Amino acid sequence: MSLGVSLVELPPEVLLHICSYMSGVDLGRLSMVCRHFHDLMEVDAIWQRLCREIGVAAIHYSKSFKEVYINLLHHSGCLLGLWKNVAHIYGGLVSVEFVEDHLAAYEYGSIGQELRNPLSRTLLFTIEMTPSAKNIAEALVCHQRGRHSPQSISLSQNKIELICQGGHIPPGTTEIEDVVDMDVLSMAEISYMHSLNRFEYQLFRDKLLIILQSPRLLLEPVIISTNERPSPWCPIAPGLFKGSYGGHGIEVIQLKYDLDANKAVGLKITGDPNIPATKVTIEADLSRPMVLTREQQSSLQLLQQIDLPDLLDVSEKEMCNQPFVVPSACYEREAAPPTCSARFHSRGQIANESYTDARFIPGHWIVFDEDTFGHLWMQIHSFSLFTRIKDDELRPLSS
């Protein structure tokens, strides 16, 4: 006599537990075995677990987790998260979020030169929950300014490439005024444009026209492995920061650590004609900390002397809170705190337009607190302040 138990005879809670280890594809196959398993697949808790694993914990009240997973997240859930646009020199920070019953991708940037202002956002595309869609392209709606439905799209976990059909901006357009009345500029952009001097206006014009004329999005993932310091010797946690870059305005960088080289590295997520997106902007040597008095920081000449290794060996000094002063004759766009928690020898990358004659110049990397650091550019007499971009600043569209 056989003592075996048929799978369909197992208690429902046991079957549900078994299903919790199965993928969406396997659950679909199981539902086709028999009516019993088909009915079991109607239990929404099974699909809720799959949605949560992707990062979707709440949905619109009119939908079920099964609907959301099968018609949307199964093919598009891998797109959720942070991406960087590498299609042109200005780059861009893009977040793909689940919003009630669809995915929305929007680009974050800065309008103006005020570091304390929140990032602005522009909707790029949505992926709708369309049961009739045979593939992701059929569920995608392009919202790029002045663009229409997607002409082509290729998707993977490592890259999103989207080309939208022609828009309202002719390739030969050279003036912002030609597009102001075409419903592609926001009121904030128009207002900011009229507040600029001639040089800043030219920079802003060139940036807008390049972005508006580009039909292509090429997104690569932004990987932030941890929100904690990877080593006790790292003075600040890695992550995304926004900082002041003079006439180019506010730009977004990613702070990372190269522990093998004992360096902190700032990579540009957004860029400008001098240093494009994806390039290194700052490198700090963590093996060369320094502790300076207020008097030693009073002028760039004194700081440059301290940078000479035969004058002062600071590599053995213990990091501690110390005064901070922006040297005289050094341009400071944002007011910095009066004290810092750590200071290191560093170098910053500068270049001529079109990233020509690129080179690194000496500087100081100054950490103020867990969310703020600065960089002193010695040779160009400039100080840049950076603040952390927190999760609530990258808010979903429904907020």
TrEMBL record:
Ranges of residues in domain F-box: 4-50
BP terms from Gene Ontology: protein ubiquitination
SMART domains (UniProt xref): FBOX
InterPro entries xref list: F-box-like_dom_sf, F-box_dom, FBXO31/39
Entries under Gene3D superfamilies matching the protein: 1.20.1280.50
UniProt KW keywords: Ubl conjugation pathway
Cited Pfam families: Cyclin_D1_bind (PF12014), F-box-like (PF12937)
Pathway field: Protein modification; protein ubiquitination
Sequence similarity: Belongs to the FBXO31 family.
Name of the protein described by the UniProt record: F-box domain-containing protein
Organism this protein belongs to: Capitella teleta (Polychaete worm)
